[in-house]
Amino acid sequence: MPDFAVKYFWASLLYLAFAIGSHAHVDAVRVSLAQLFLQAELVALAHIDSVAERNLSEVDRPELLEVVTATVIEQFKGPSTMKLDFFLDAHGPAHYQPGDTVVLFLEKPGSGHPLVRYVEKGKLDYLSQQVRTTEHIVEDSSRPDYLWVLARYSDALPGVNSNPPASGMASTLLRMLQSDAPALVESALLDWQTAGAQLQFNEDQVRALLEVTREVDRPLNLRLAILRSMAQQRLVGPEAWDALFNRAAAADLVPVIRSTQGYENAYFEPTLRKLLGSADEDIAGAAARALGHPAYRGSESALGKLLDSDSRRLNYAAVAGLAGINSPQGLAILRETGRNHPDERVRRLIDAKLKTANGESGL
What we know:
Elements: H1 3-23, H2 33-39, E1 42-55, E2 64-77, E3 83-88, E4 101-107, H3 116-120, E5 126-128, H4 143-155, H5 169-177, H6 182-195, H7 203-213, H8 220-232, H9 242-247, H10 250-258, H11 269-275, H12 281-290, H13 300-306, H14 312-325, H15 328-340, H16 344-361
Parallel strand pairs: 3-5
Antiparallel strand pairs: 1-2, 1-4, 2-3, 4-5
Helix pairs in contact: 1-2, 1-6, 5-6, 5-7, 6-8, 7-8, 10-12, 12-14, 13-14, 14-15, 14-16, 15-16
């Protein structure tokens, strides 16, 4: 890939990651590594030496601030330095402890900031707006991933590297999604969501991503998030859920079932109908609610059987499923049950669902 194309490609990744924050409110939980990198004046992997109160006053009255002192291990942006003194200027700030290895994203305070005088007088170097969800404390196992990704971001900066590696957005996000650091995975998912269809994975990368979703040692919520992102971009079909359904422990089946919602497909119907018969009410109830979509017409009778259960929770789930299918057969089952069910609460719920269904369908 020509140098100019590589440079443009990397700049696009950083721009896309930042764009969402330039025109919309970004919750602290929803800030990616690339966004933090763009907004910071200095970025470094560093060792936390101390976190202690320090008197920054030059007069008799003390002015105590908790100052973090760190030693730079490797720097990726900003004026070169080896030691840093900074203040955590955020609500719910990052919780650093001496000995931590962290990625720091630091900024100088603006002219109107109350701490600017301390920076101007050399008592502080920077401020940090990192919070608990963006603190990026780095474990030894994920350190190579952080170093690789941050180096790629640094290569994208103007004038940093005239020969950046011919590696694009997809390979960077793949490296992050394969990491065992949840913060890197979550960050990659945010950038993927922002990039949308502009991000193109090749066949090998799709296979590698699919393998990540099958690694049982990884957090299930992140594996499901990756799988749903792949489905959203039409990189995989519903059969990609097979491994999760087949290998998931009973305790994990509920989130796997729920993850199919929004991606309803007749392919899921046999599995979901089978799970209606689970002895675990959480699993059976989740399957019933997941079947509540017109794509699952034909499951009405199976759902109707749950209305005979002694469990109100399963009755409620069956009502939700039948109402969601919103078919003549399903509504007929609800009407019949609404007249005869022994539980008044179930009858009231059915009545409410039927009123909504009648209003939407004109039945």
